[in-house]
Amino acid sequence: MILKESLREVVKSQRADLESFDYGIEREELREIKTDMPYALILSGIRRCGKSTLLHQLLKKLPNFYYLNFEDTRLDGFQVEDFEKLDEIFKEDYGKSEYYLLDEIQNIGKWELFVRSRLDRQKKFVITGSNASLLSKELGTRLTGRHISIELFPFSFTESLSMSKRKANPASFSQYLTHGGFPEYLKYEKQEILRELLMDIIQRDIVVRHKLRDSKIVKTIALYLITNIGKEFSYNSLKKMFNLGSVNTAIAFVSYFEDSYLLFTVPKFDHSFKKQLINAKKVYSIDNGLSTSNSVSFSSDFGRMLENSVFLHLRRKYKEIFYFKGKGECDFLIKEQNKIKTAIQVSYELNEENNQREFGGLLEAVKKFNLSEGLILTFDQEDKFIIDGKHIIAKPVWKWMIERNI
User: Fold this and answer.
1) How high does pLDDT run on average in the chain?
2) Could you tell me the domains of the chain?
3) pLDDT of residue 135
4) CA separation (Å) from 146 to 115, 120, 150?
5) How many alpha carbons fall within 13 Å on the CB side of residue 81?
6) pLDDT at residue 406 is higher than 50
7) Fewer CB atoms inside 10 A, N or C side of the chain?
């Protein structure tokens, strides 16, 4: 419970802070947001990726609104019953409004009860949160059919260009490749920002939230995974490597990392869903800058940085992403409407030594899924090939990213 006047002071203070907020560059996702729909719009993503900024950019377009950020330490005693007090304060101090903008709401238990009750009164919500599992659980039980979800990532390449006011070319992409897209880091270029961010995610979103006792082992496993981009792993191998009590512990840790958006796992493609669950997975990091700032070994591997940047660009649009492994390997398969539609291989540089490996796995995938062409993404090479009647297109990643954002 929290006193009404104490809550009023927090609301008033946060409202005043909006006047001095740095709204930054306009996020691409702002175009997707329609405020006139009778749904709760859920913005989810990793800490510090810009969810609050997007929320602030949106509120600038609204005539009147109610706003509260639940990450404020002064709200530590806030409970679901306090939403009624909050609603009274909103109406008393800011008049009538149909828009509620609530930041990091997953910190409050049973928040969805209040949202559902106000949706029934034709109110509109924009809500942010940093935990995919917690949000989806509440949304699935109370807001089924009453919400739209948008995932937010650190800056895309085009957004980083807008921030730096640079043009798209190999030099600007090279910087994006190593720096990643966390807005605050791009602004100040202090690696301590990303080191502290990693610790914040591990401590607040994983250790505290899941009541874990050994934060050191959590950090060690997280670092291992986010710096072994594109490499296969199994839960059993993690269990043995880190001397975990059981495979279930390894499964739980990886799910915690994914829920906090720290990393993503990509399954090996198989028509059998059961085999997809059993087969080794590959892992990708939420951000190249986060991985390079927290590891010496990853910072010199430009090939894996390139692969990770391609994955992140794909993941912004697609949920069903696989890797292919037959006689050869293909980095990414994109599934749409129950069918594999795209095969992509990532190679930092094509040369005589790696041609057979890079073309072989891609061509095998193109043939297996009866695709007309395959795509090889490179750092800065462009070419076209016809092999066994199949078109193979080589293109620089930076050009591909720009084209996909137009």
Assistant:
1) 92
2) 4-151 (3.40.50.300), 157-405 (no CATH)
3) 60
4) 10, 10, 14
5) 5
6) no
7) C
| CA-to-CA dists, residue 117 to 2, 109, 161, angstroms | 21, 15, 42
pLDDT reported for residue 32: 82
AA letter at 72: D
Per-range mean pLDDT, top range of 19-28, 247-256, 349-358: 247-256
Sign of CA dihedral 100, 106, 110, 113: positive
Query: What does the pLDDT read at residue 5?
Result: 96
* Cβ pair 394, 376 in contact under 8 A: yes
- C-alpha span between 242 and 83 (Å, rounded): 44
Amino acid making up residue 24: G
Q: Is residue 300 over pLDDT 70?
A: yes
Determine contact, residues 126/29, Cβ cutoff 8 Å: no
Measured between alpha carbons, how far is 257 from 383 in angstroms, rounded to an integer?
38
What is the strand order of the sheet 263-267 is part of? 232-233, 281-285, 263-267
Q: Which two tokens stand for residue 200?
A: 């914040």
